[in-house]
Amino acid sequence: MRVYLELLAREASAVEFEGPIIEARARGAAPEEVAELEQAKVEALKVRELLRRRARREAELSALYDTASDLAGLRDLDAVLEAIVHRARQLLGTDTTYLTLHDPDKGDTFMRVTDGSISAAFQNLRLAPGAGLGGLVAQTARPYATADYFADPRFQHKNHIDTAVHEEGLVAILGVPLKLGQRVIGVLFAANRSARPFLQEEVALLTSLAAHAAVAIDNARLLQETRNALEELSSTHRSLREHGDAVERAARAHDRMMELVLQGRGIEDIAAVVAESGELTVLDGLGRVIVGQATDDPGIFEAAQASRALGRTVRRHDLLIASVDVGGEPLCTLIVRSADADERIVERAALVCALLLLFRRSVAEAEGRVRGELLDDLISRPDDDGLIDRANRLGVNLARPHVVIVAKHQGQRERAAFWASSQAALSHGLAAARAEEVVLLLPGPQDAKRIAKDLSAALQSPATAGAAGPVTGIKDVHSAYREAQRCADALIALGRGGDGASASELGFVGLLIGEAGSIPGFVHATIGPVVDYDAKRGTSLVGTLAAYFGAGGSPSRTAEAMHIHVNTVSQRLERIGRLLGEGWQDPERALELQLALRLHRLSG
């Protein structure tokens, strides 16, 4: 019996166990000895099989232990699944093993991991629900094995599946479900390229590996969900921290700005706090630049409107726009050119600038009322000597020449009054608002056309301005006001609304509406160059011009009337044309010239 122990010790093959019996028969051993050897062989083979099964079981347990260890240190799901599939192939001794998973988005099953596969089509195979051996396993949640795949009628054969299986060369296939609770999430397969049955122990082993694979997948899902939750918490924490930092920065900037306000500093100093973040422009309610450089971007106006409507900063390209209004009227707009400027600081700066502008407006309105009352008194009570002292207290020197301007508008009294008050304050003059007009007393000289243009732009509607003066002192302010008012009315009557002019600029119309002192001015403005030429050179161009108009514009009759040669008349008329400029013979201009000649003659 010792010989069989030696065979068992060196793990001999089953064929070698026949050697002792053959040797005993060859040497003529007794039948009892041969029978005893036969019995010993049978027992030895049983022990051999038991040892092999225990060795296989030990290997299986070791593989399961290694798999559990992989799960305990799970870092990469793909690596764990590949290890499980590879161990299944080694333990079952099959040609290939593979694992499929359910795709909840598409509703089918796809190939997840393979080991020993050679076909690209097979490695990219997708199975519809219930199709193929894998579909049968997924539907029933039970293991299935087939010794000959193509001859097995228990499951649905699909052309693309059968083609891939045939390309891979598979014949015998075992599939076990991957289950999480009662839900099947995939199938683990072991397959051979030749016919072979699968033992119950192999099914049990593959089922255990499938359970580990399901746990690995579920652990990976839980780990990913945990990671996502941690990342979300981390992101939320970062956002809260950044928000807190931004609020703190905005609070510090707001404190700095309020400190500047309390120190009596201006918008320029407030803007300097924001300018640390980028290039800054501050606009008033009329879109005029207070600080910084003007921008020609046509979208700024719409962005400012959106900012006022939303009550927050609006981004346009690399610009941040914050605009504030009061009662629907724009008051202040901040424009910051920066990619990383703090929106909260810009919003708070816009509010502080708006408050400063509103305060300035209130002060200006209060001062404007005082200035307006003084101008009203100058117009209505020109004999009150106390008006000079009141003017001096306001910084208005009535001893200097001033021009009176009356600007007619279309009912926008508040905006017109604010504009007039601002102009008066800037020019050290006076302004008063009335129902349909504003009156200004400004240090001369002043251009009525410019006043009309600027007021029209501020109101966004035509404004017409008439001017009179200059006047000195308080005695002539009332008469100058009346003349300026008549000029504005005349412009409107002549269809020149939105324009500006003085009586001297209205030609003979100005002569009719102006005071007596406007006659010399009209004469000088009309034929002054000709009169001055005669005075310097002793010529008679004025007489020639009067004779020319008296002769109906005929040079020959003019020559007869003056008893001179017609060429002399032509030369004189050419000189007159150079002095008066082109168009002096046009009917309207000729009428003014004849009126000026008559007034010149009457004045001696």
Secondary-structure map with pairings?
Blueprint: H1 2-9, H2 19-26, H3 31-72, H4 77-92, E1 96-103, E2 108-115, H5 120-123, E3 126-127, H6 132-140, E4 144-146, H7 159-168, E5 172-180, E6 183-192, H8 200-262, H9 267-275, E7 279-284, E8 289-291, H10 299-310, E9 314-316, E10 319-326, E11 329-337, H11 343-380, H12 386-393, E12 402-408, H13 413-427, E13 430-433, E14 437-443, H14 448-459, E15 464-471, H15 477-493, E16 500-502, H16 508-513, H17 518-537, H18 541-550, H19 555-562, H20 566-580, H21 587-602
Parallel strand pairs: 15-16
Antiparallel strand pairs: 1-2, 1-6, 2-3, 4-5, 5-6, 7-8, 7-11, 9-10, 10-11, 12-14, 12-15, 13-14
Task: Describe the fold and architecture.
- The protein is built from 21 helices and 16 strands.
- The strands form three sheets. It has a six-stranded antiparallel sheet, with helices on both faces. A five-stranded antiparallel sheet has the order 8-7-11-10-9, sandwiched between helices.
- α3 packs parallel to α8, α8 runs parallel beside α11 and α17 packs across α21.
- By secondary structure, it is α+β, with helices and mostly antiparallel strands.
- A hairpin with a 3-residue loop joins β13 and β14.
- The protein is 57% helix and 16% strand.
